[in-house]
Amino acid sequence: MTSATVFQSDAPLDERRIIIRRHHGDVEMVELPWGLRPRDGDARAVHVVRSEGTTFPTHRCLVPASEFRHRSFSFSLANGDWFYFAGVWRSAIGDWPEAYAILTIEANADLAPFHDRQMAVLTRDQRMAWLDGVVPEDEILRPLPAGTFRVKRHSIDPAQPTLAV
Predict the structure, then answer these.
(1) Which of 34, 136, 141, 164 is most exposed by smallest CB count within 10 Å?
(2) Helix (H) or strand (E) holding 84
(3) What's the pLDDT tens digit per position in 98-122?
(4) Which residues form the domain of 86?
């Protein structure tokens, strides 16, 4: 298996990344671009999807990562393990390629000082429950307990754009 890497939330929306999904009954790893075509036909890609009030019965995916960054801070699991972002993928639509987006949830206590939302983080023991849909969305797409994340501050160039979570 490929190793988990830092997720750069300021990456271009068409940046390709390995995701894990169930497709035609098999679990597979594929490289897809980040950014779904909006259902309303808007030309701007959707890279995150708010999870509350929505169900995702199919087309679920996992995005492996070792840490993620927001502005001048990086976040990783305090226990040093890697994790997954909960995501969804879509088949190609017209001239828009097959692609994925990451789901967002309310920020946990560790991230709340930096942003009110965060990408939905799943621990490795939650991966198949998400992929196979055996746990309702509101039970798995929730903030992890306080103390789950290690926060590191990084100096950045003031000209660098801010990063979206």
Answers:
(1) 136
(2) strand 83-90
(3) 999 999 999 999 999 989 999 999 9
(4) 6-153
